[in-house]
Structure formats: structure tokens, C-alpha cells
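Hi there, hope your week has been kind to you so far. For a while now I've been wondering how a particular protein folds. I'm sending you its amino acid sequence along with the C-alpha cells. Could you read through the record and tell me how the C-alpha cells relate to the sequence? Take your time with it, there's no hurry, and the full record follows here.
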Amino acid sequence: MQILIQQEFEYLLTNNPPIYTLITEAPDNLLAEVVIGDDQYLQNIRQKMGSSIDRAHYILIASGKEINLANLANSPVPYQVVSPKAKAELEQSLGEISAQVNKKLQIDLIKTEIQRKRRELETLNEKLNLESQIQLQSLVQSHSEETQKNLKEKSLLHFLDFIQSESTTEDFLSQLLKFVWKDLKKLGRFYQIGFSLKTSSEKSNIFTYDGLVESRALLSADFRSPTVALQLAGAWGRPVGKIMTWALPDFSRDASVFIEVVDQQLSAGVIENYFKDRLSVLSLYLDRWMIEKEYEVIVERWNRTFKSFSGYMHVIDENFNLFQSNYDAPGGEPCYKQLAERSTPCPQCPILQNKNTEFFLKEGQKVKTYYSEFKYKSKKFYFVIYEDITQLHLLQGQMIHSEKMSALGRLGNHLAHELNNPLTGIKSYVQSLLEPTYSLQLAPSLQSDLGEILKATVRCQRIIKNFIEFSHQSEAKLEDVIFSEVLQNTLTLLKTVLRSHRLFIDIKETRVRANAHDLQQVLFNLIKNSCQAMTQPGSVTIFEEEKNGKIYFHVKDSGAGFDESILKNIFQPFMTTKKQGEGTGLGLYLSKKMMKAMNADLEVSNTPMGAKISLVFDKL
């Protein structure tokens, strides 16, 4: 503690010497905590130091018994007034002041430390806030990237599921164009999408789709050329927008997928990324589909040629076992047994003679043979043609017969439609006879017979209608349908398989959101499977249940149920419990897929008395 004391009172502090001992002069940077002196000294110090010493404690040394208040008018207010002889009292006051000063110093130190800690805390908070913002931005970015990745993976899986399930269908190319169109429409605007497949004549088979119309054309257009838009404009006879093209990799021919863009609202980078993940798969499946189609055309042409030949034709191995023929014969049996009804090979067989021969295949039937040899998997095979040279005069009659059979086949396709005409006439006549004007003149038994005729006619028309509706493929549109009506229409087509089983139905007039055609196909598959699962006459129960906001329609049979190993994979494609050749294993898989398309589900479980398959719909 610094003490500024008037020199003549220095003796009062002999045991506690001051830091500064002055009379009237004080240094400019004086920071004394205590100033001791008479009133004149205190006034001089105040005038000299000004406000820089306002915070000091002033002790007035008063030599008189009375203090002149007038002398203190311009002096600082004293902390204490003591007499020149009150040494002990002064020391006590200095002790109190020292304690206050120390306490103040401690408080100031604490405040300084608190302020320092507060600044450090504020700095730390700012740093933490900054790091939190950075981490939040990073998390938002990561979440956005993960979301985009998941959406991309989901879209790609949807594409793979589609292409795997539809690549074997007849209209795969058409469905593929529509599928890619829907995907790309989410990314921007464009005019049309198409595939270009090069032919052997250096022309391009171009398949296009603009959202409404599919078209196919054979054009001379090079999609690798920068002037392809001008080539297409000349071929199509209209202005053509920008053509964006991607070559299909590893294709068996020059092939491309292209988009015609009419404005700048379609990002090339986004479309590039879309095709980058799909071109290889697209090329693989499309190439395979095209090869299969060409193979089917070749095989069909071969089969037509094979089957249309008027004589006999077959493929046999070295042991005369049949592999293929244009006459009805089980494979694997010797040709001489099936064709010549012999127990040994024909002596004049071209295989034995190693040349083309003529001989009597049967009594009264002479044939001329043509054969060729080929190898397959290191095994010899023979392709043999038998020309019936004794019945050439019957060729014209056989051709006429073939045309008649073809005409009868075409007639059969329209038979279901033509049956409605006489049925409608019968129905109209019966309804006219049953009108009150005429029915009162008829005997009751005759009225009853006419009623039965009317019921039978309506039933026949319903059967024909249900058959046509069942076989007609329409675009899947969801609508409110009455489940029981769809069920009754389906049961009409299942009377044969249900004949040996009991049928129990407990269904209300409940409406569900579905496509009637697809729902009918699902019910047809499920009920037929239930009947086929019962080796002995049993029962099929169809009933309804509501729980957890869902409507369950159960189809339960009294068969043996499913093995647990099969149950967990029951909806996988090609999973079947039937014998080889009796089923494809796609019934439940396709039924599940159709239910998913209707925003519904299919569940399979075992019961103590057989299997239960449930159609699950949201409650309307």
C-alpha cells in the first residue's frame, strides 16, 4: 500500500515507513492509496493531482480541538480526522484501510479473473457454435447425399426388377420405351425417346415413343454422326430438335438409345448419369431379347417349313433314335418303329446305304430319301427327308385341306363372340313370352320352363362375358370394386376344378381399391392352386376379416399346407411344389406383384388344417 504523507507527520509512521514521503510535491504517476496531512496539504495535493487521486483515502491531521469547516470547503472529504499525537489511532486507521485496499485488490483480481474466464468462455462458445454449424452443414450435406444415393439405388433396383421380369415378354421393347420415358420425364422435358438398331442393309430400325404413340421406321440414319438431326428431319419431314445419343456397349450390332430435346430444360449431365448406370444392363437384356426374337423367327420359319412338308422328315442319331420329326412320334424311340412299323432298321435306309435311296416304306407306299450328316457335341446326327412319290397326285388335295384347317382355326378365334348372337335372340324371345301380356295365357309349367331357359341363357352369356374379360388384357387402373362381385365372376371360370371340392364363402359387400382384371387373375390363381393342392376331395373356404385398419380376404384349403423351407421363399419366381412340367412356379410371384401394383399385399401361412393365403387391402 502506498502512502503519501506530509513530511512533518512522518514520525507517526516510524514503524510503517511510507513508499513516498513528500511535502507538497508528488510524482505525476502517483497512485497512493492513502494521503495524510493537514487541510492545506490535502488541498495542494488535490489541486496538483486532480481527479487521478480521487480514489485515495484521506486522513486529516487536525492540531486543534475544533475543525474549521471553512478550510475544508475545497479539500477532499477525509476518511478520518486524527490529532498529531494519535499515533495508535492512525495506525489502526491505516490497518483498516490496508484491509479494505487488500480486499478491494482481491475483488479486482477476482473480477479480472472472472472477466478473463468469461472472455475465454465466450471464445469457446463461439468456437463450439462455429464447429456445430460446420458439423450441422456436414450432416445436412451427408443426409442429402445419402438421400440422393438411396433414391438413385431405389430407381436402379426398380429398373432392374422391371427389366428382369419383362425381358422375356413379347412386347418388351415397347414396355421398355414406356418405362424409360416415365423415368426421364421426372428429370426434365423432351419430345421423344427411341432405340436405333442397325440392320444388315446398313439401315436403322428406329423405334420411338413420345408418351402417346409408338412408331417404327426403317431409315438411313447414322446416330454417330453430328448431323443425325438433319438426317432425321429429312426422313420424318419435320424439324427435329437436338438429338442426344448413347451407344449401347457390347451389342451384337450397331445400336443406340437417343432422346429428342426441344428446349434447354433437360440437363445433359443428369441424363448422362441416368444412362451411365443402365446402359450395360440395357444393352445386355435388349441384345438378348433381339437375338431371341430373331432366333424365334428362324425357329418358327424352320418349324413351319418342317411341319408343312408333305412327306416325312426327322432328325435321328446313329442308333436311329428320334429327336425331332414332322409326324407325331415320341422322342427317343427308333424311327423304323414309328415310321415303318418295323422292329429292325429298313434295309434300304439311306443311313445304312450311305446314299439317297428309294424304297417301299410301307406296303403300297414308296418314298424317295434325302439325307445329310452333321455333328453336335462330338455325336453324329442325320437329317432325313422322305418324299412320298406314290401320292404326288394327292398334293393338291392336301394343300386344300391345309387351307380348310387354317380357316377353321381362324373361325375358332371368333366362336365366343358369335355365340352371343343366338343367345341374345333366345333371351329376347323368352323375355317377350314372359311379359304379362303373354305369360298369363301360358300354363304355369310352361312359364317355369321359360324361366329356366332364360336363366340358362343369362348364365351362358355371363360365362362367355367372364371368359372374354378374363382373357382380355387391359391397362391397370385402380378403382373401387366390390370384392364379392369379382369373386363370383372368377368362380364361374373355376367350376371344373371346384367340382370335387366343397366351397364355403363368407364375404360381405365390401369395397376395395383394386383393378378388377388383375384381382380376378389373382383369385383365379389362388383358388386353382388351393384345389390342386388337395389330392383328395376337400374344402375351400373364402372369408373376410378386418383388423388394424386392413381388410383381409382369406382363401383357405384343407390340403397338406407348405413346408417351412418352401414357405419362406414362396413368392420367389420359379418356386413351385408341383411336379416338373405341371407348373412354372410364377403364379404366386406374379400374384404378389399384381397385388403390390394395387397398393395391396399377399400373405401365405399354414393352418392346422391346410394352407391359408390372404389378400390384404387398406380399408376404404
